[in-house]
Amino acid sequence: MRSLRELAVVRTGDKGALVTVAVLARNPVDYPLLARALPASVVAARLAPVLTGPVRRHELPLLGALLFSCAGVRGGGVSSSTELDAHGKTYGHLLLDIELEER
């Protein structure tokens, strides 16, 4: 098993209660592994403590990337939340320790 951190970088953005997390393969040959081993359900489970809405996955194979749209950020997002460090970038970094099964 390898961690997502070894295979990819993340970039995030947030607007209100919506966070987008882009997971970009460091090496294009690793994109198929990311696409197979990182479904929306895995991201939703990892972010469950901070999300109340669904997670949708969008595949961008020509970029070697997966884009996750995460709705229902707890507290309404950075502009209205009183929680410490509720910026979208923290959500992306929560994903980096996910262990991916290589088949």
TrEMBL record:
<dbReference type="InterPro" id="IPR056362">
    <property type="entry name" value="AtuA-like_ferredoxin_dom"/>
</dbReference>
<protein>
    <recommendedName>
        <fullName>AtuA-like ferredoxin-fold domain-containing protein</fullName>
    </recommendedName>
</protein>
<feature type="domain" description="AtuA-like ferredoxin-fold">
    <location>
        <begin position="3"/>
        <end position="100"/>
    </location>
</feature>
<dbReference type="Pfam" id="PF23544">
    <property type="entry name" value="AtuA_ferredoxin"/>
</dbReference>
